[in-house]
Amino acid sequence: MEVFAEFLAGIDNPDHRERTEEVFTWITKKFPTLVPKIGWNQPMFTDHDTYIIGFSVAKNHMAVAPEAAGISHFSDEIEKAGYDHTKLLMRIQWNSPVDFLLLEKMIEFNMLDKADCSTFWRK
């Protein structure tokens, strides 16, 4: 979590900071092979130097970005979980619970789908 320390310290709302840290800690425990890093000033996790999932925070939500393929693949589940989304990210409102099972599925999907990917982003 050391790699995210500065990012987390920059989150002014203590509840938002705690929630964000909880998600990052969960990912590092559930997927110990993923590499946490900061890229484009945002926290993300990579696997064999390819992007798996990234995050950002805003006043009303935490954004989760599993690339367009991840959003497209899980759009029905995202909506069932009560989250809204764009083509590139889903928004978890701060007052909504985190659907860790959905996050797990998104991460596993990207890890499997990009297992042979030699680029950072999908082409």
TrEMBL record:
Domain YdhG-like: where? 16-111
Question: So which domain of life are we looking at?
Answer: Bacteria
Q: What's the protein name?
A: Iron chaperone
Q: What is the lineage of its organism?
A: Bacteria, Bacillati, Bacillota, Bacilli, Bacillales
